[in-house]
Predict the structure of FAD-binding domain-containing protein.
Amino acid sequence: MPFTTAHNLSSTSTTTLPVLISGAGPVGLYEALLLTQLGIPVRIIDREMAISPNSRALGLHARSLEIFQFTGTIDDFLERGRAITNVSYYKNARLVGSLPMIRGEEHSMFSRGLILEQAKTSEIFLGKLKEFGVFVEYGWELLDTKVVEGGPGEEEYVETTIRRALVGGNVAEGEDRVMGDVDMRAEQKDKEYETQVVRSKYLVACDGGRSTVRHKINVAFPGRTLTQKSLLWDGHCDCDMSFAGFTLVKGSNGKNLMVFPMDDGVVRIGVDNGDMAPGEDFEQTLRELTIEHFESIVAEVVHPAKFKIKSTIWLTAFKINERRAEQYVYKNRIFLAGDAAHVHSPAGGQGLNTGLHDAHNLAWKLGYVLNGLAKPEFLLPTYEERGAMADRAIQLSSKLLNRRLAMGWVADIKAYFLFLIGPMLVAMLDVEYEKNNINRPHKSQPEPKGDYKVGVRAKEGTLLPFYSSSFVTDTKDKKDPQPTLRLHSLITGVARFHILVFASDHLTTSGAKEISTLLDHHVSQWQSKWTYGSTLRDGYTDKDLFKVHVITGPSSTTSSSSVLLEMSKRDVGKGKVFVDQAGRTHQNYGFAATKGLGGISVIRPDSHVGFRVHGVNEQAWKDVDEYFSTVLVAHYE
Ligand SMILES: Cc1cc2nc3c(=O)[nH]c(=O)nc-3n(C[C@H](O)[C@H](O)[C@H](O)COP(=O)(O)OP(=O)(O)OC[C@H]3O[C@@H](n4cnc5c(N)ncnc54)[C@H](O)[C@@H]3O)c2cc1C
């Protein structure tokens, strides 16, 4: 799009930033936070002047809460979010029933997920960034970007042109900011802008469904736009029906309502509002949408109950796109994340969650590469593993939407009882990546299937701290048993690999000494060979990239082996031993808790299994060593 007005100010930067993030929606903010905690300086811009007050996403799934532990924001989320305990089903104004939300305590410590407005999610990330002295540059809009090959002896870089209006903002009056087809707008007449040409090693595009970056680098966004229209309203209302919980209403006119309670008595109502008529102009439909019209639609669905709107915060209409970027990684320099990479219907509430998981997958890889710990051409293309997750999200949301449109909430009940949406799926805990450079099956041991494959999200487990045998029989401890802990509370830290040593019952035999010696030998070698140069700000006081947790089977509780006692006194992450009393944690990772070979699972910094090997003997440790030697570069050699 040619520019027609004069740019009063312009500048070209000659210094190269490590990472530029375009778009400070929740995904861009989360990426900025992760990179900051990884010690990587970032610049984050957004074309708007502030966080959008209109929250599209409301639901945060268990997997998202798990990863928030990495950034120390989880307490804020738990404090501000609300758990939804059940769903009520209505046929018009008649309550048909209520079902508890699917839970899965054994799969995650966050068994329910949370309801929290998207704007509040963004606020939490912004608040945390502020603590680190990082601020969003609002009012700056990305106009263009390209990868520039460096001259002789010069590194390649990304050159990005950004601008800001000298007065007011960049966003044109009346621009539809929800979802829809791509609409590249010309600059506004008579506005004066400042432009900058920015150099960065990497650019992360978190600029939403209409991503300017995606267009500028010509990455296709194949998929489809549905003809079906949806309406969304947030506000206060008077209604004879209780909207205190998550409510689904099926109207005899064929329309379906979804009602979510928000803070301060605000209610969100979403309506499936039928298909586009032949020749209908959606932009016009949007312009002509009135509060009265919306009120009449809802009133008709809940009839004979009364429905009256008292005040409106947001009313909009949107069409659904189901699209996924053909590639997430462009020339190993530009990465698409969040809605810039995938869009789909809100059914199942996965869009924002999927975007946050993209950010989590990418951040540590950039951190490692920028710290010279991995070759960019080896590690960065593995970010493409996120594409399959978007495909799954699109398929699931499409299935849920189609069923809901066809059957209303009957579809939800059917799905519930037929386990079509089980706890793992609903909570997005079943994320699993294909084999690639960092998800490496063992070279000779048989490749396990399903839950134990490399690439799967690290499973949860319940552990006990180890105490000597007396604690099991001690009457005092029997009355006051030691608190159990979750495996996931151990495997945090934005850049750390966690090595889980499943010792089965080897720690109760002469095997204990061997495990302890091998562990100390290998881990000390790794810690000295692979050091992270930037300062990590992730809650640990040390710089150790490798955290080791030894998990012993139940028989160890009756052992008084001196090595075992010594290992129980170690610091967490330095080979401290924990007891898997029920043997379930071993089982979750595919190892026998008694009379087994044991095994080692290497957990990537984003808590996915990168490598696993049966056995805890010297050969097993050598295999782990080979994994790290393949994945990492010995920067300081
Ligand atoms: C009705 C509805 C309900 C939803 N409910 C859920 C739910 O319950 N759960 C869920 O997980 N998801 C849900 N979603 C999806 C969710 O809202 C999106 O997936 C989420 O907003 C994506 O976040 P993002 O940061 O990638 O993009 P966005 O939130 O779109 O942020 C992109 C940012 O980039 C900025 N930007 C754009 N262009 C430029 C540029 N050229 N230069 C600089 N900045 C730019 C924008 O101003 C914006 O701040 C829902 C969506 C809709 C429409």
